[in-house]
Protein 1
Amino acid sequence: MATIMHVDMDSFFAAVEQRDNPELRGKPVIVGGTRDSKRGVVSTCSYEARKYGVHSAMPIAQAVKLCPHGIFIPGNHKKYAAVSKQIRAVFYEFSPAVEIVSIDEAFLDMTGCEHLYETLEDLGRAVKERIRETVSLTASVGIGPNKFIAKLASDHRKPDGLVVIPPEEVWDWLAPFPVKKVWGIGQKTAEVLASWQIHTIADLRRCSQESLIRQFGKQGLTLYQLARGIDHRAVEPESETKSLGRETTFAEDIAAISKLRQVLADLAAEVGYRLRQHELWARTITLKLRYDDFTTITRSTSLPEPVNNDDDIFNTAHRLLVDNIGRRPVRLLGVYVSQLTPFGQASLFSDPRREKLTRVMDELNTRHGRPVLYKGRRLPLDGDK
Ligand SMILES: [Mg+2]
């Protein structure tokens, strides 16, 4: 049985503002725009503001009417992103399998980590405590046998909540919830169900699988399962599912390996730069080749350690190029990286001087919005954009 944790920061943006400005504590803080902003919507509000009926996605103008003495703040997304990053680092202290849902919300697959704590409550408390120590903010945590239960649990006792639902309690715990709490049941579906006198999850269990599928199609099966606390979706660490890369098609086919090598260096540098911008490392490097007859091949190498340095990416891709080029002219060349991870060493063959050079080049290239610095082999090609 899996152990899934859902962590949701409590009124995140407003809480950050209250943390950094003591005068805002205990007051209705509404983040999303200034009081007179015509088109603004509430992105978060403090619990004090919620008492007046203010909620996220509400137009600012309406929030002003409901809560005239509220404190309206446009918000500082750069700051929130920085805090979010600190919180993510805490998540990775507890599990390598983290699915980031949004800036203030994540699933952690804790399966196999349970034995490190006496109880799941202890585990939940440890995560909350580390978050509090690190960013001085409260989070609500839900723990259950799957994502659906974990998310419902974290939402159950906000703010600063901790709710653990062991597998054997799922059936009874779920029963009284309104159907709208079921993932995927929106206004429309809820209305159809209400017309069938189905209001709670217990009611929903009276519907046969066939009738739900007849009415809602494929989603009907999901509803049938969720009503029973069954949810097979896995926690998907964002970085494992993604890959990134660059490819280029030539105006004229190229057969000269020296010329291909230059293009490859360009591509590797761009991919490396993007990895570093995302603070990710890649374990697998893939070369894509399209020959003059449109045959396309991809060849990959997985490395013992994740990398994000241009040289490591280039060297690996170059080896693949040499092994696969033959004598055929090439139409398209691409470099992709996958099996991405937020943990990595400075580099495969850590060389502080090279790391420093990379950082300086990244900074300059970022500042100019285009590559201005090239390493020796990376000379701009004729006709390069
Ligand atoms: Mg939240």
Protein 2
Amino acid sequence: MTEDMLVIVDTFGRKLRSEERNPSSELPMHLAIYRLRPDVRAVVHAHPPFGTGFAVANVPLDKPLLSEVILTLGCIPLTAYGTPSTNEMVDSLAPYIPHHDALLLANHGAVSYGPDLELAYGRMETLEHFAKITLIARLVGKPAELSPEAIAKLLDVRERAGYMSPEARGCQACGYLNGHSSSCAAGSATRSQGRSNGGDTITLTRQELNALITEAARLVADQMKH
Ligand SMILES: [Zn+2]
């Protein structure tokens, strides 16, 4: 591919150059990212085999396993499946875009973005590298997660280095530090989706869950007796 093959469009997706070629069918996703993230000047969308494997298995890359990934990228959430090149996909991505720099697209692939092409591409490389290492760690044994204290220190370093705004901290850490913080747009979007489906999301300890299951089993057993 050469530079003259690039299709130049404006922020509404209207072609400004190229008679014979059309922009990517994923243009709505690219435009949404530019719209929601004024700091972003490059978007990389790809289907790298390891990252896409996690996306197909519907497993997010949000576990605190590698200090480098926490320092340079943060957690990589999985966004709900949407038909490629439609607004369905844009809708499922939108809540995550402001607070994350790379996303897994369920049953599809991955997208990363940044202030320039090199950084956006580097983030896709980090995503794929992290997916490979996570897969190997899962094959070898049980991946050991970094402690909340270790994560907090890494986030401090990241914040001091200016990789991350203080507001993004809660959300970037959401996959790492047990549940979404109240400032997490992605988290609250997920929660409100839960509500619109007819139920609030609640959190239970293992003990509370066991008690509920035991109680339910007891009720069923009682009913069967009568
Ligand atoms: Zn794609």
